[in-house]
Amino acid sequence: MTVPTHHPGDTLLIDYAGGALGEAASLIVATHLALCPCCRLNVAEMEAVGGALLESIEPDAVDPACLEAVMARLDDLPPPPRTPRPKPVHRPAEVPLLPEPLRRYVGNDLSRLPWKRLMRGMDCCDIPLGSGSERRGKARLMRLGSGVGPPHHTHRGIELTLVLDGGFTDDLGQFARGDLSVADDSVRHRPVADEEGCLCLAVTDAPLRFTGALGLILNPFVKF
Predict the structure, then answer these.
(1) DSSP assignment of 159-193
(2) Strand ranges in 63-134 using DSSP code E only, listed in sequence order
(3) Which residue did the predictor score with more confidence, 113 or 49?
(4) What is the three-class DSSP state of 57?
(5) Which residue ranges does the record annotate as region Disordered (predicted)?
(6) 202 near 153, Cβ under 8 Å?
């Protein structure tokens, strides 16, 4: 198995380990971790350090009456509802294997997803997130044919792109399965799918900003 060469960076990993990321960003980082043993190890070490720091903090004294009130309220709570165990999803042989964090959101069968055509050779599928999560970012699957890519653009916020199958090339380098591209307003690029095409997971927290003459036409209609 090929080991990824493009990673989220320490800031994103620390925020993930500390639970500071929104749902969309957490999903893409967790999916990268499923494909990258190096970053999994880094996050485990970060979580261990965070746990050690918490244990070293002296606890504040609690009024015994406060504890009794909390326990009384717990006794009054109804038992949690029993939820049925989800049925296993079997991956069709012709569908690329998706890492588990992502399979929980979209399943295994890509052909059953509600793909939308953006342009010739480029389709997308929005991933439903929890209530209110879209205010902190959107997640979508992107499917690009050989040699296809969006117009040149920069970013009003952060754009995270994780390759799930195939690959793409842009001004930042070549990205293959498991690689995560991190782009912000300092990056202007045009990702183009490699010969075998590309399936990727993309997360944005603000609309893209297309550049050049085409941008004057597209930007008013872009709603990340």
Answers:
(1) EEEEEEEEEEEETTEEEETT-EEEE-TT--B--EE
(2) 116-119, 122-126
(3) 113
(4) coil
(5) 74-93
(6) no
- H or E stretch at 133: none
Residues 183, 200: Cα–Cα separation, whole Å: 15
User: Cα 50–52–56 angle (5° rounding)?
Assistant: 115
Whole-angstrom distance, CA of residue 176 vs CA of residue 190: 16
Tokens of 58: 């002296």
How many whole angstroms separate alpha carbon 101 and alpha carbon 201? Answer: 12
More confident residue, 129 or 136: 129
As a whole number of angstroms, the distance between CA 158 and CA 222 comes to 15
Query: What Rg do the C-alpha atoms of the chain give, in angstroms?
Result: 21
Separation of alpha carbons 12 and 14, rounded Å = 6
Q: What is the pLDDT of residues 149-182, one digit of tens each?
A: 888 888 788 899 999 999 999 988 999 999 999 9
CA angle 165, 170, 172 (to 5 degrees): 105
Closest CA to 212 of 152, 150, 155, 172: 152
- Check: CB of residue 77 under 8 Å from CB of residue 87: no
Q: Structure pTM?
A: 0.74
> Residues 164, 199: contact at Cβ < 8 Å?
yes
Can you give the pLDDT at residue 64? 65
Helix, strand, coil distribution of the chain in percent, nearest 5: 35, 25, 40
Other CB atoms within 10 A of residue 179 CB: 24
